[in-house]
Amino acid sequence: MTLAIQISDPHFGTERPAAVEALLQLVHEQAPDVAVLSGDITQRASRAQFRTARAFVDRLGVPVTLAIPGNHDIPLFNLLARLFAPYANHRRAFGAELEPIAEWPDLLLLTVNTTRPWRHKDGEVSAAQVERVAGRLRSAQPEQLRVVVVHQPLAVTRKEDEPNCLRRCAEAARAWSRAGADLVLGGHIHLPFVLPLHERIDALPRPLWAVQAGTAVSSRVRDEAGNSVNLIRSRGRMGDRREALVERWDYRPASHRFEPVSVHRLGFEVGSDG
Known about the structure:
six-stranded mixed β-sheet; globular; about 25% helix; alpha/beta; single chain
């Protein structure tokens, strides 16, 4: 069983030190195989904030880290940097690859950079990105849980959040579902939920689930959702199904710990892969 932790929207520069320490404790106790940082790693994309984020990841001690930028990880006020080197500080901290991939016998993680320097916050996925991900999904092994990671969500639970949805999200969902994707991880709106995309988007040929994370450690929380992270446990193939557990863990200030709040047990028929 491979264990991934989704750490989204930490917004270093606005972090809560107590939540940071509690998250480090959770990671050391659970010992995930991979940490997925699904964007908005910093608040203002400064070199200092990325250094803080990198130091945090180093303290995690997780064997593999996949990090994608969010809209906050592109300089907002430095227009020259935004136009000519928007990802320089991100790359300095996390490497040149903006769409890293990792896989294990029971898990495939594919990431997509949905930011665009010419947009303030809206995310977009291009036709080339949709096809690149779909092509890699089609070559996945039957035992692998297939996970795509974006920043902006493919679907939301509240009407007021609809403007935050990824542009071309329906096209992407259909193509990735057809190619065999199981989960799409996202962040951006600081609201955690697990949602069946096949009940929200027409013409999805097989089940596809959106797994949204809240902000991991930032003070920029919603009234209805505090700091939280997701643990995704790939249980591999069991008969004619792949199984995954998606666990939400919330930070509890009273105990200074992240504690489990909910768990979704999801199954995917191997024979329905595209």
